[in-house]
């Protein structure tokens, strides 16, 4: 019996009777990070890193949550669990599981590039490595972030020079803060969509330093927006919410913006290729660094990526999970859902 | 090519016409005349010929990037565009080549004289020194399918802005049979009159589909009504004892339709007629499928000429006695057209498109109902005092097409789209009931809104039965109303029928799958409308 198995609730460790990132309610859940597809509602007990905990609590409400530091070992029925930086978002972790010399790592979502905001990815040696494959195709190759942020700031500067408002979209937790961190505040002020500002408040309360931002509310005079930038959730675009910014240039920041089809479908004026997931070269690099022979491929281009790994000589298996990766940043939500989100954001 | 790549990025970023015109006008002011000429050529579908086939291109890309062709293929399915896929999988450039667009087109045109190894070296060498967008454009140029979302009209407007030459004059000068290899930018855009190139056609005037009730157009007395014949729109030019026939796609098609050759002698020089290339026999039009046997064939056999002879069904006269008469009113042009067609013996090759007088819009509606039986697509309405304009314009000319034939069908297979729709399931195969079984009979790609495509994509992901490469079979649950313009028997299709212009009219989420149409219903349509 392998130390970790996969069933219809999630990744399961029978010996310790715990799940990692389960998608159905279970008695005990170990959580890699706070994104909704990895930390779901309804578990009786949660364990996460100390840095990930505030956002998880903010999102899931009154839950029973215990925390550990990175590297700290927690033993459950003889199985050693420890959390290691995944470099995906603040507090995100790969979970290492060890019992009698058998070592597994469930990496959740991760990236190798140091974004200057969260704890950089650390490779963890193991025999069994569970990896995502959101961008597991050779067409995905990121530009270094300095170059990318220079492009984003150039676009903001040009938009400001035309007397227009710049709007850039990204997921409320993770991408949004990464954007904030890379914006050149000498150009203008940063405004934020309410859903993003709520997350910012949680992060600031736990001591994370973010640039100064102003929440978009009805109280802000509309004349103040032109020349400045608004960081918004992807769902806010195409909704009445954006009308208040008048003649704006809209940009989307996502790994999907690599593809011309996705850029055009998104209907954004600009697409910047910015992701908190691995591109193709770094997925392969990460797998190599673990020195694992057995690779389990979850969400993304699972069948293609695992076939490729098998050709490289790995023992690779594809897994059906309910993780979504960066999909939320591109798929159109129902209007009702986004309207609700915007209403909350406006403090209605 | 850096200027050209930046132009492409700017054009690709926006759907706003004014921004596109501005980007193009900026570009025309930046580059030299040679690049201007090539840009005009590329944007008016004058592409260099394909010099490398895509199979070789895949092999070379796979070699340079060190990945197997199967994963390149899989990537292509996701990206939806081979030129883009290759541009993305290649390793980052090692050098930074900065040459003009014309340099690269010359570079590509030299491939014709190379053997396979020589082409490979040249292509891989170019890839090593080009950025992602430049590589993409280079790939598009060598595979001969460069396209960009800019109409010729829009390009003409930008060129007018950059050169100060009037748009309509430019539009005329840019038409016809030129290539960048046999003219210069200066000669092309400064040529003074239409006679500089005797084969040069006038831009076609195109009509929009009538969306409002016909009654809203005012009094019938102000309108000319005739059939919208179901052939290929064409323009016949007789000048300098030669006859030229242009299709609406701005293609010179003399070779394909030798019937028109006699008109060089039969008609006076300085005659230009707008009409329909129409299969026609024993005094009446034949169906479009008869014409299809001739489209795409350059060598026309005697048998084909006998079985599928064409005439020019004449709609309008644009040049009379060597004068451009497009500014005359429709009624005046029609009188002259009738004179030309009746006065000269063209052995029946010129036919006048009959106009029908009508007192009430209802009379016209009745004529429209029976149009399909006459192999007509519906009614054309032209204001009697209208000029012959250029391009698609609203107001004076309308097409009032017959309603499509429809059938309710069940979705059986789904495939990802291409380009803009690469991540969505947009290409579907539909079936009708044959007893308990579904038999596939058509594919359809268009007709749904983006929102509906998003919804159906999510549904397909959850209801896949089997995957065959990029194609998925899905549970037979969804009913769509399929609209089409014609139906005929076909030996090439398993179902034995082929539809013309099939598209999804409506997603019938209200309809239980058992109530979709049957194979018998399809047979009944074939009996009534098949030709």
Automatic annotation (TrEMBL), chain A:
<dbReference type="InterPro" id="IPR026360">
    <property type="entry name" value="Xnuc_lig_assoc"/>
</dbReference>
<dbReference type="GO" id="GO:0004521">
    <property type="term" value="F:RNA endonuclease activity"/>
</dbReference>
<dbReference type="InterPro" id="IPR036866">
    <property type="entry name" value="RibonucZ/Hydroxyglut_hydro"/>
</dbReference>
<dbReference type="InterPro" id="IPR050698">
    <property type="entry name" value="MBL"/>
</dbReference>
<feature type="region of interest" description="Disordered">
    <location>
        <begin position="329"/>
        <end position="348"/>
    </location>
</feature>
<feature type="compositionally biased region" description="Basic and acidic residues">
    <location>
        <begin position="330"/>
        <end position="340"/>
    </location>
</feature>
<protein>
    <submittedName>
        <fullName>Putative mRNA 3-end processing factor</fullName>
    </submittedName>
</protein>
Automatic annotation (TrEMBL), chain B:
<keyword id="KW-0132">Cell division</keyword>
<dbReference type="InterPro" id="IPR050191">
    <property type="entry name" value="ATP-dep_DNA_ligase"/>
</dbReference>
<dbReference type="InterPro" id="IPR012340">
    <property type="entry name" value="NA-bd_OB-fold"/>
</dbReference>
<dbReference type="InterPro" id="IPR036599">
    <property type="entry name" value="DNA_ligase_N_sf"/>
</dbReference>
<dbReference type="GO" id="GO:0046872">
    <property type="term" value="F:metal ion binding"/>
</dbReference>
<keyword id="KW-0233">DNA recombination</keyword>
<protein>
    <recommendedName>
        <fullName>DNA ligase (ATP)</fullName>
        <ecNumber>6.5.1.1</ecNumber>
    </recommendedName>
</protein>
<keyword id="KW-0479">Metal-binding</keyword>
<dbReference type="InterPro" id="IPR012309">
    <property type="entry name" value="DNA_ligase_ATP-dep_C"/>
</dbReference>
<dbReference type="Pfam" id="PF01068">
    <property type="entry name" value="DNA_ligase_A_M"/>
</dbReference>
<dbReference type="InterPro" id="IPR026333">
    <property type="entry name" value="ATP_dep_DNA_lig_pp_1105_fam"/>
</dbReference>
<dbReference type="GO" id="GO:0006281">
    <property type="term" value="P:DNA repair"/>
</dbReference>
<dbReference type="Pfam" id="PF04675">
    <property type="entry name" value="DNA_ligase_A_N"/>
</dbReference>
<dbReference type="InterPro" id="IPR012308">
    <property type="entry name" value="DNA_ligase_ATP-dep_N"/>
</dbReference>
<dbReference type="GO" id="GO:0006310">
    <property type="term" value="P:DNA recombination"/>
</dbReference>
<dbReference type="GO" id="GO:0006260">
    <property type="term" value="P:DNA replication"/>
</dbReference>
<feature type="domain" description="ATP-dependent DNA ligase family profile">
    <location>
        <begin position="303"/>
        <end position="434"/>
    </location>
</feature>
<keyword id="KW-0227">DNA damage</keyword>
<keyword id="KW-0067">ATP-binding</keyword>
<dbReference type="InterPro" id="IPR016059">
    <property type="entry name" value="DNA_ligase_ATP-dep_CS"/>
</dbReference>
<keyword id="KW-0131">Cell cycle</keyword>
<dbReference type="InterPro" id="IPR012310">
    <property type="entry name" value="DNA_ligase_ATP-dep_cent"/>
</dbReference>
């Amino acid at each position: 019996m392998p130390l970790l198995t996969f069933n219809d609730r999630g990744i399961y460790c029978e010996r310790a009777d715990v799940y990692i990132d389960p998608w159905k309610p279970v008695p005990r859940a170990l959580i890699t990070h706070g994104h909704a597809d990895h930390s779901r509602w309804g578990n009786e007990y949660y364990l996460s890193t100390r840095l990930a905990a505030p956002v998880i609590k903010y999102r899931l409400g009154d839950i029973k949550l215990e925390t550990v530091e990175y590297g700290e070992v927690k033993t459950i029925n003889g199985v050693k669990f420890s959390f290691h930086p995944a470099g995906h978002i603040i507090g995100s972790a790969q979970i290492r599981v060890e019992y009698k010399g058998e070592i597994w790592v469930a990496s959740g979502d991760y990236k190798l590039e140091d974004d200057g905001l969260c704890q950089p990815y650390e490779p963890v040696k193991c025999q069994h490595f569970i990896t995502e494959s959101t961008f597991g195709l050779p067409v995905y190759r990121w530009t270094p972030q300095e170059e990318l942020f220079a492009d984003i700031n150039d676009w903001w500067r040009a938009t400001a020079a035309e007397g227009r408002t710049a709007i850039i979209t990204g997921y409320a937790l993770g991408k949004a803060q990464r954007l904030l961190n890379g914006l050149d505040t000498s150009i203008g002020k940063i405004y934020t969509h309410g859903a993003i500002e709520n997350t910012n408040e949680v992060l600031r309360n736990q001591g994370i330093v973010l640039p100064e931002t102003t929440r978009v509310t009805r109280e802000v005079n509309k004349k103040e927006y032109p020349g400045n930038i608004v960081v918004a959730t992807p769902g806010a675009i195409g909704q009445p919410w954006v009308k208040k910014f008048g003649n704006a240039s809209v940009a989307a920041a996502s790994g999907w913006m690599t593809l011309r089809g996705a850029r055009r479908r998104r209907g954004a004026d600009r697409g910047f290729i910015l992701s908190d997931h691995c591109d193709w070269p770094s997925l392969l690099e990460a797998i190599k660094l673990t020195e694992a022979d057995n690779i389990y491929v979850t969400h993304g281009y699972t069948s293609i990526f695992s076939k490729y790994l098998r050709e490289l000589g790995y023992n690779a298996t594809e897994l059906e999970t309910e993780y979504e990766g960066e999909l939320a940043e591109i798929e159109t939500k129902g209007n009702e859902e986004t309207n609700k989100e915007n209403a909350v954001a406006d403090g209605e | 090519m850096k200027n050209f790549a930046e132009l492409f990025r700017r054009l690709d970023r926006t759907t706003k016409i004014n921004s596109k015109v501005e980007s193009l006008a900026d570009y025309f002011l930046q580059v030299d005349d040679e690049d201007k000429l090539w840009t005009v050529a590329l944007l008016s579908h004058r592409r260099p010929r394909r010099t490398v086939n895509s199979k070789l291109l895949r092999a070379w890309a796979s070699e340079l990037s060190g990945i197997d062709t199967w994963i390149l293929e899989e990537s292509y399915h996701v990206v939806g565009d081979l030129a883009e896929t290759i541009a993305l999988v290649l390793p980052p450039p090692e050098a930074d080549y900065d040459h003009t667009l014309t340099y690269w087109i010359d570079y590509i045109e030299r491939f014709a004289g190379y053997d396979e190894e020589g082409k490979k070296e040249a292509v891989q060498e170019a890839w090593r020194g080009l950025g992602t967008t430049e590589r993409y454009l280079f790939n598009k140029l060598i595979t001969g399918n460069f396209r960009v979302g800019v109409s010729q009209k829009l390009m003409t407007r930008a060129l007018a802005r950059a050169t100060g030459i009037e748009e309509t004059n430019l539009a005329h000068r840019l038409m016809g049979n030129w290539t960048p290899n046999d003219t210069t930018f200066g000669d092309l855009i400064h040529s003074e009159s239409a006679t500089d190139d005797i084969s040069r056609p006038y831009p076609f005037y195109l009509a929009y589909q009538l969306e409002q009730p016909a009654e809203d157009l005012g009094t019938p007395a102000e309108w000319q009504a005739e059939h919208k014949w179901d052939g290929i729109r064409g323009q016949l030019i007789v000048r300098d004892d030669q006859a030229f026939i242009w299709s609406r796609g701005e293609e010179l098609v003399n070779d394909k339709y030798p019937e028109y050759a006699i008109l060089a002698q039969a008609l006076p020089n300085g005659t230009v007629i707008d009409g329909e290339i129409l299969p026609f026999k024993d005094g009446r039009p034949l169906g479009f499928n008869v014409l299809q046997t001739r489209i795409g064939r350059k060598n026309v056999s005697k048998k084909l000429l006998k079985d599928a002879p064409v005439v020019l069904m004449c709609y309008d006269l644009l040049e009379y006695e060597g004068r451009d008469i497009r500014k005359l009113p429709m009624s005046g042009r029609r009188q002259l057209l009738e004179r030309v067609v009746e006065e000269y013996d063209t052995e029946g090759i010129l036919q006048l498109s009959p106009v029908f007088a009508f007192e009430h819009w209802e009379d016209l509606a009745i004529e429209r109902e029976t149009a399909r039986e006459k192999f007509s697509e519906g009614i054309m309405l032209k204001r009697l005092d209208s000029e012959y304009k250029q391009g698609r314009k609203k107001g004076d000319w309308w097409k009032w097409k017959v309603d499509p034939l429809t059938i309710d069908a069940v979705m059986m297979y789904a495939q990802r789209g291409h380009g803009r729709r690469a991540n969505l399931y947009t290409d579907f195969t539909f079936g009708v009931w044959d007893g308990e079984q579904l038999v596939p009979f058509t594919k359809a790609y268009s007709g749904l809104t983006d929102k509906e495509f998003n919804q159906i994509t999510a549904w397909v992901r959850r209801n896949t039965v089997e995957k065959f490469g990029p194609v998925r079979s899905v549970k037979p649950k969804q009913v769509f109303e399929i609209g089409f313009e014609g139906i005929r028997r076909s030996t090439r299709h398993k179902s034995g029928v082929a539809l013309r212009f099939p598209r999804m009219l409506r997603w019938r989420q209200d309809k239980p799958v058992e109530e979709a149409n049957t194979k018998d219903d399809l047979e009944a349509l074939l009996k009534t409308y098949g030709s």
